[in-house]
Design a protein that fits this description.
By secondary structure, the protein is an alpha+beta fold. The protein is 40% helix and 19% strand. Among the domains are: 34 residues; 105 residues, Roll (Pdz3 Domain), CATH 2.30.42; 149 residues, 2-enoyl-CoA Hydratase, Chain A, domain 1, CATH 3.90.226.
Length: 508
Amino acid sequence: MQNLFIWLYSKTPYLRFEFSLMKNIILCFFVLFYAMFVKAQTCTDFPNIAKSIAENTKICPEAMVNDLVQLNESIQEIHPSPFLYITDSVYYLSYKKALSAASTEKTVLEFAQIVADFVHGIKDSHTNFNPRDLLFQTNRKKVVVPFYLKEINGKYFLDKIYLESLPIGSEILQVNEFKTDSLYQLSKRFCFREGDAFLPQTEIASKMAGIVFNLFNTAPTITFKYVSFKGDTLSKICPALTVKKMMRMKNWYDSEELTYYFDKNNVAVLTVKSFETGNLSKYKKQVDFFFNEVESKKCKNVVIDLRDNRGGLILAQEYLISYLNKAKVNQQMTYLYKRSKFDRFSLLPFYQRWQFQKKARLVYPRGIISKEYDFFQSPLGTVKTILYDYLPKNQMNKVYEGECTLVINGFSMSASALFASWFRDNQRGKIIGSPCMGPMSGTFGNSATIRLKNSQFPIMISTLKFTPTKYEKIQLEPIQPDVLIQKNVNDLIQKSDPILNYLGVIQP
C-alpha cells in the first residue's frame, strides 16, 4: 500500500500539488505560531517576582495599566483624604503620567519606579511602596550586602555595613556599576514623605540606598569603590549573604523596642525604638519600671530618645505621655475615618468585632464607642470625624515633673511625630536632633496592605488621619528641633553620638 501511494504521488501531478499545498499550509501555520509565541514571550501579564527581577522579564502594558487602575480605585476606596497635602488636579496629573509611562513594555523594576512615583506623590508617609518588601519577594538565594549610607554636604559616607567589611566613615564613590549619587537619586524615587518633610526624606533616602542597591543589583559579587582615610581611592569586594539570611538577621535591626540606662551623672535615658509593641502589657510594665527607678534615684533629668522610631500604637505613645503630663491636660484628637472593608473596625477578628458591637449597644447612644458604632453601621464610602477627648493615665498614677529632653530624627514618624507634637505643645522640654517625618497637625496611620493583581506589588494605604484639635488647619512643614544636630564624618569614624555628647550624657 505504501509503495502504491508513492507511485501515485510520482505519477499524478494533482496529488503532487495537493501535498505541496498542504506542506506550505503547515509551514505557514508553524511560522505564524512561532512568531506569536516569540511575541508573547517578550512580556508577561503575571510576572514571578523571584525570577522576573533576575531575568529582566518585562510586564505587558495592559497588565501594568490594570494594576494602576486598581491602585487608583483602591486609594479612592480606602484613603480618608488623598487630597490633603496635594490638590486633586495634581493627583490626577500624576495618575495620567503613570498610565502614559506604562503604555510600553517595562521590566518589573522599571514598573516599580512608576508605581512608587505615583503612590509617593500623595505625600502621605503611610501610603507607600517599600522597596524592602519587594527585595524580600525576590529569589531567596539572591546575593546582598546590607549597608547604610549617610549624606553629608553632597558626599556619601558609610554608616554601617555587614560584618564591618569596610571602615565606617569611609566616603563611598561607587557600588558595582552604581555611582553613589545615582544610587541616592534612585533611592529617593522610592522614598516616601509626609507633607513637605523634605529634609527627613533626604535622611531616609541616603540610609535606604543600601536596600535599593541590593534590589537592583544582579552581579554575583559586590565591589565598593571608596576613599580611604589617607585619601587613596580603593576597591574591595565585600562579603555577602543571601536574601533569606538577611531576613533572619535580627542583629542588623534593633530588636529591643524599649531600653533605658542611667549615666554617672544620674541622667535617665529612655530609648523607644518602636511603639509597635507586640505586647502592650509588657511595654507598660517596662515604662512603669523606668519611671519607678527615675523616682527612686531622684533623677532630675530624663532624655526620651525616639530616633528611628517609625510609630505604632497610639495607646503606647499615650502611656508614655501620661508620665510626662504635668498639667494633666486632656488628649484632644480628631480621627478622620473612611468606611471600607479595610478600616480598623472591618479588620477586627470576629470575636473582637462581636464584643465591640455588644458593648456599644449596651451604652448607646452615650460615649465615644457609640459614635464609633454609628460609623461602623454606615455604608461603605462614608467619611466621618470623631473627637477623642480624655486624660491618658498610667497604672502607677504617677507623673514625672523634672526636666525632660526629646531626641528625634527623620525616621521619627507616625506615633512618634504625634508624641513630638504633644511634647512641644505642652512645653515639656527641648527637642534635639533633626526634623521628624510629620508636622504639628498630625499624621495619617492604620495602613492597610493591598496587592496589585498582576505585578503582585504590596502597597500600603492609610485608613485614618489623626489631627490634634489645636491644629485643624493642616500644616505641611515637619516638626523642627530646637537644636539641630546631625552626625558629621568624625562622629561616624569614632562611632560617637553627637546628640548625647551635646547633652553631656555619659554613655555606657
